[in-house]
Amino acid sequence: MMRPWRLLPLAIVLILVGCPYVEYQVEMTPRQDGSMRRSIMAYDRNTDYPTEVGTTEGTPSTQFDGIAATYRSTTTSFPVVGIFKGRTPNDVGGNGFFHQYKTSLGTAWVYVESFRGTSQPAQVLEKYFKAADTMAEFFAGWLQETYPNEKDAARLADFVRTTALADVTNIIAYAWSAAGAQANLKADMAVPKETLARIVSYLVEKDYLRPEEFGVLPGLSADNYPVLRAIIVRKAGLKDETFIAKLIPPSQEVSDSINHYFETKLASRAATQPGQPATPKELFDSLVGVPLEFLIGGTPDRLQVVLHAQPGAQTNGQQDQSGKITWTTSLPAMDSQLLPRTIYALWSLPDETAQRRLFGKLILEGDALQRYAMNIAVLAPTEAKRWDALLNSLTPTTAQEKLTQIWRSEDPKDRPFRLLAVNLLPWEVTSSLASRPATGQATRKE
How far apart are CA 178 and CA 192, in angstroms? Predict the structure, then answer.
């Protein structure tokens, strides 16, 4: 059976040496009609190390035809440009949306886009947990079948089925969640040190490792087999190292025996449960896919997105004084089982002229305008017309009184407008009126 540590040298080489990758540069500008102008460049970076994101070094990507088709563009070279409304194009791999909320008091926008990764995290984790369970079940079964009279074999089998299985699934969950959460907006492909520290902390907490045993972490070799045997004796409660020495390091006979046992069991189960791993390699790949992808990054592809918004946006990107937002992130593979890279921005632009005409001053901007615009969007067409008519009837001297009447009204026709009125009233007004009874409501007699 393939042994996990044989993949560690490959992972280390990929991390240290690097490999060719694709860099995508996306730029977006909102248009007055609610659509978005989007352009994309893609470079094949045939260098061992990532260049500075956003540079024009490299060769235009061979992915041009696919991107041009997605944009329905007739251009023959990068950049490819398209106009999109609502959903964003699946050019880099993913999905998202852009929406404009236009009102008489100002306009708000929201943009959210996820790149690659999986949208079914529960199913992904279930698959890995099942693989871990199968690995533990079969290895424990092999131990008991091969060494029926060895007490330490029974102890090791029990340890594998219970404690070790629970701890392996916990570490898989750590690696999977951290791969999406901590590396979500990092341009480099380095493994987050916080995650490695948390996993090491977990191993120490569960007494798999002690500080003096950290030398086994880089990988298994003849030099640290004794430490590994001592750890297993300690954790599994074995009498001594006599039995575990038969397995670490494994002889060719032991390896062949384990491989044969797994092949037989997997083939038998695959016959009745289609879709399950049918070979030891498939089982191993399904177990370590996420941790290994997390370790080596899956793909070194990188992405830079630039969005021309308004200053003061809520975003997980970097915004400058002009309002331009920039995101720089690494990308998982197209078929990655990690969480997607997700970016977002919400911003607004008040119509100061209209607000001063109605209220005598600017009263709605930033987050408040964002909420107001979203509340307006859910009104029925007839309700929206009524609300606009009410707004147009306001003046700086009558606005607060009329809005307060709407907010305090018990008329069902005014119910859709109460929240809108609260958005436009000063906080001190709504807070002071909140404790008063509405018009026509009797006060409670003591």
Answer: 8
**Which helix or strand (DSSP H or E) is residue 58 part of?**
none
Q: Tell me the pTM.
A: 0.74
C-alpha to C-alpha distances, 411 to 6, 49, 392, 403, 404, nearest whole angstrom: 74, 67, 21, 14, 13
- The Cα–Cα gap between 325 and 276 comes to 45
Which residue, among 165, 147, 159, has the nearest Cα to 257 in the 3D structure? 147
* Helix/strand/coil for 172: helix
Assign 107 to helix, strand or coil.
Answer: strand
Are 48 and 19 in contact by the 8 Å Cβ rule? The answer is yes
**Domain layout of the chain by residue ranges:** 21-116+298-349, 121-296, 379-433
**Six token digits for residue 277:** 């791993």
Instruction: Report the amino acid identity of residue 331.
Output: L
Under DSSP, is residue 45 helix (H, G, I), strand (E, B) or coil? Answer: strand
Per DSSP (E only), the strands in 247-323 are 302-308, 314-315, 318-319
Half-sphere exposure of 397 (CA within 13 A, CB side): 0
Give the separation between CA 101 and CA 378, rounded to whole angstroms.
11
Tens of pLDDT, residues 228-284: 899 999 999 999 999 999 999 889 999 999 999 999 988 888 778 777 787 887 787
Q: Which alpha helices (H) appear in 190-251, and where do they start and end?
A: 193-205, 225-236
CA angle 62, 68, 69 (to 5 degrees): 110
Among 193, 185, 192, 190, residue whose Cα is nearest residue 300: 190
- C-alpha to C-alpha distance for 165 and 171, rounded to whole angstroms: 10
CA 339 distance to own-chain centroid = 4
Asked if residues 332 and 338 have their Cβ atoms less than 8 Å apart, the reply is yes
Residues with pLDDT less than 50, the chain: 1-18, 48-54, 56, 182-183, 185-190, 297-298, 435, 437-446
Summarize pLDDT for 35-46 with one digit per residue, the tens: 999 999 988 876
At CA 225, angle to CA 221 and CA 230, rounded to 5?
A: 155
Answer yes or no: are the C-beta atoms of 366 and 224 closer than 8 Å: no
CB 325 within 8 A of CB 184: no
